[in-house]
Write a structure and sequence with these properties.
single chain; 83 residues; alpha+beta; Ribosomal Protein S5, domain 2; five-stranded mixed sheet; 35% strand
């Protein structure tokens, strides 16, 4: 399957998200989700769209994010899913 690519922006943060069928792995800038966003509350913002859509274990996400702080970056990622 081909990857689906989308871009989200929040304040000065820009997130690029690539989705492919998989087991639910989430990598942010080549690191695990909890390694990149060590605060559980912020990491949940990233996972929330998948939980709402019941797609948690069906797709892998590869994310590149830059600019802003961790909160703005996590919200930029969430915007990709919710628009």
């Amino acid at each position: 399957m081909k990857a689906v690519h989308a871009v989200g922006r929040r304040k000065s943060a820009v997130a690029r998200v690539y989705l492919v069928k998989g087991k639910g792995d989430i990598k942010v800038n080549s690191r695990t989700l909890l390694d990149y966003f060590p605060v559980e509350e912020i990491a949940l913002v990233v996972k929330q769209p998948f939980e709402k859509l019941k797609l948690v274990d069906q797709y892998d996400m590869r994310i590149t994010v830059a600019g802003g702080g961790l909160r703005g970056q996590s919200e930029a990622i969430m915007i990709v899913m919710f628009g």
